[in-house]
Amino acid sequence: MCLIIYQMKHSFTILLFFLLSFFQGYCQTVPSDNSGQIRVYDSYQPKNGSSFGEKNKISINPLGVAIGDYPLYYERLFGNVFSVEIGVGVTYQNYLRGFTDFQQSSTNYNNSTFTRSYQLGNTYSISPKVYLNDDCFEGSYLAFCYRHRLYKDEVTAYQTTPLNEPMKESYKINSFTFNYGYVYHLGKGFMLDYYIGIGARTVTASEVKEDYNNYTFAQGYALFVENSKFSNLTGMMGLKLAYAF
User: Fold this and answer.
1) Is the pLDDT of residue 48 over 50?
2) Would you kindly state where each structural domain of the chain is located, as residue ranges?
3) What residues have CB less than 8 Å from 145, skipping those under 6 apart?
């Protein structure tokens, strides 16, 4: 009887040792695959634009209404930091020209003795950008922008007297600016993009003016078209509403 009990104790000891060894080996190997870890994810991550995989962005600048500039912008991202934005659209009456140009022609542009019929012009731009946060369409960026705008109109009357033939005017602006901007995610692909810049521009104008030396309007000598060209410093600012996809 004692022999049988001894053998049973010995067998139980061997079995217990085997189970403990197996359990210890299992505990050492299982955590390596991280299957037992708990991970917590934030479903909304506005700081990580790249997490959404956004490579394209379209935007408009509602402030452009004040200067009669109506482009639609498209931006394409290459990598996480570099992009190119192009804009194409139309121009119409520039309501702020007399307050922003600081030229004699600006006063003439708002001269109440002329009656003008405004026409559609064209606008386009191209702007390479570098995002400083290395996180796609997110945070601060630097940009170099070339922009072209052409405004057109016709003078149809002088001191309320209709002209026999409308006189055409045009105002062409080519500018180069260095811009600093910031893009803020609103969620679900919508963004705010605001920016400021400084640079130089060249203006080419064809404008109707009064000829005070031959002031006989009935004979058609009072008005003439003057062509001019000048360059000066310029600033830029804007606030775009954008959608990325």
Assistant:
1) no
2) 49-244
3) 125, 126, 127, 175, 176, 177, 178, 179, 197, 199, 236
